Amino acid sequence: MIPVAFQYHAPTTLDEAIAILRRYLGEAKCLAGGQSLIPMMKLRLVAPSHLVDLRRIQDLAHVHEHDGGLAIGSMMTYYQVQTSPLVRQRLPVLVEATNLIADVQVRNTGTIGGAVAHADPAADVPALLLACEAQVYTVGGAKDRRIAADRLFRDAFTTALTPAEIITEIRIPALPPLTGGSYQKFAHKASHFAIVGVAALVTLDDRGVCQRVRIGVTGAGYKPTRARAAERYLEEKAPSKGNIEAAAKRALRGVEFLDDHRGSAEYREHLTHVLVARALAEAAARASGTS
Amino acid sequence: MAYTVRVTVNGVHYIHRVEERLLLVHFIRDVLGLTGTHVGCETSQCGACTVLVDGLAVKSCTMFTVQTQGSSILTVEGLAKDGELHPLQEAFREEHGLQCGFCTPGMIMSLLQLLARNHDPTDDDIRHGLAGNICRCTGYENIVRAARLAGRKMRGRA
Known about the structure:
The complex is a heterodimer.
Chain A: E1 7-9, H1 14-23, E2 28-31, H2 37-42, E3 50-53, E4 63-66, E5 69-73, H3 78-83, H4 85-90, H5 92-99, H6 104-109, H7 112-118, H8 125-132, E6 135-139, E7 145-148, H9 149-152, E8 153-155, E9 158-159, E10 166-172, E11 179-187, E12 194-204, E13 210-218, E14 225-226, H10 228-234, H11 241-250, H12 265-287
Chain B: E1 3-9, E2 12-18, H1 24-31, E3 50-53, E4 56-59, E5 72-74, H2 87-94, H3 104-117, H4 123-129, H5 141-157
Parallel strand pairs in B: 1-5
Antiparallel strand pairs in B: 1-2, 3-4, 3-5
Helix pairs in contact in B: 2-5
């Protein structure tokens, strides 16, 4: 339970951090909150010979408005996200989802950028970002770039990030009026990881018909995904119990359900079905102001 | 490879050269001799290692000592003042909030965090605040009672 020895760097600027990552390319890893990385290092599942602590780099932990939406710095801890008045006002579903992550200790230290870069198949944040159609901004790659959330998550613990790339900010577009959100999670008792977690955003038109539906699912497969068949089905339809149920069935399409110690593939499929239906129902009720 | 760390623990300043990979829990226990903080599950789930770093409850088994450069750390040993127990410690004694006591320091440090943020938590708030602390003995009932009593004591004294 002791990690392999490493050299520790605590740069104060992004340029410094990128230089270190490039110098030790492939052997250096960023340390954000460490709540996923350090347990893996203790189990010797990973053994970077250099750690680049991002905590002392100025202004990676901020929240401000951007184009009517939100710009969240990558080093914002979950606790900071939860307690941000701006996030509470603009994206309450993110506050709700964050509150279900792990526990107080992890939320005090773990970061939103770290969750994205680490890409645990059972992490909660990716489902939210998929449903919100977030953009992830990075530096340190061939050029500074932004990556859409649905292009970022490639495989279990694998993103599109290159070895010296650092996430700086996550931007979430403005939500249209009459939009409600919901995050439904069935958590593992001890670790609190999502066996399945579903984020849904539903936008209604003024007749109460679904105008836009976005669903992000985590924990079900080896990477978080959008339930696009379900989204397409429910758009242009009323969010009735029958329509939601039919949409939830379609959310199971194209998912390679994981089979592991937390649950069988069959169990995950069942959970996905149930949680998509619940998330859509709650999101629609909130959109119409009836919840 | 070694790193010089300057850190304050329970109000006392320390300077030590440590290996970069020295976990905070081992620094606290083996270097500083403060063994009230416990190593439990080794997988960051049980919370027996919980301490406050700059006022934030963290799992000290999931943090490197070098990350706490310049920080102020509070462990369970830092709670009692001049032989007088902290209200949380009194409450755990009065409500029998422990059996073997292994999880107790971690429970107390997490509750310190909870009560600092929420002076009058509901039972749900208490249980949510303790989600990162696992107990094998008590079934949690008396821990929740102790938390309620501690809250009352701390509100009374405030």
